[in-house]
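call fold(seq) -> tokens
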Amino acid sequence: MKRTLLSFILVFFAACSFAQQTFPVNGSYDIRQGLYAFTNATIVVNAEQTIKNGTLLIKGQLIQSVGAGISVPKGYVVIDLKGKFIYPSLIDPFTSYGVAEVTRNAGGPRQSIFTSTKQGAYGWNEAIRPETHVNSLFTADSKKADELRKAGFGSVNVVNRNGISRGTSAVVTLSGERENNSMLNPKSAANYSFNKGTSQNDYPTSLMGSIALLRQTYYDAAWYGKQKEEYNISLEEFNAQQNIPQLFEAEGWQNVLRADKIAKEFGKEYIIPKPVD
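ret:
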């Protein structure tokens, strides 16, 4: 049986649906929103609710209504989906879609670097980079988006997998539109790992050092929040991200336990997005 995959996550598009008005267009800008009614479909709303002979009304990129026995308003284009299914799309919570792959510089003799060489009022260690935000790094990839849509995905949480404190990820749609129209949540979660990434600093050189550096950052951030003598962009951003979801990339069950111990020490709840052995 042929299945129709339709992203219920489109309900979140409303905040983004008019973003393209800020860009130049060739000719008059058409602000009309498409009106579509998908009728007679089997609609799987969630694991507990399936609607037989259901109707789904869409206005622009916003789902207006879903249910059985819904009357179709005037002006809607009716598409009969008898014998077909409408499913919620999948959401990948941990992906690097739309951001450049992180690669470390080739090894070799070099001068020891103890503190960050990054210009500006940042923290002392380059592995602590909460000032990094995916919403400013993201580039829509229409080819990759098409591949993911065909696999059933409608949106993804994009993570910059670089550093111990990695900054914020962003939830984007796989619509294939420009970045302004793809962004659902520009700062969806704060991200962490035990991997120093591309940091050129000598420290940390071990897992123990990574754990110590992350713990010290929590203590430094707590101190920073109570003082007014020093301005530190990294600690400022670190503190600002404590009230959003916390994602921790931990490889293997032992590192999951280590991450959980840190979470308990500082009153946090980490989401471990990847399967472990």
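Confidence is low (pLDDT under 50) at residues 1-20.
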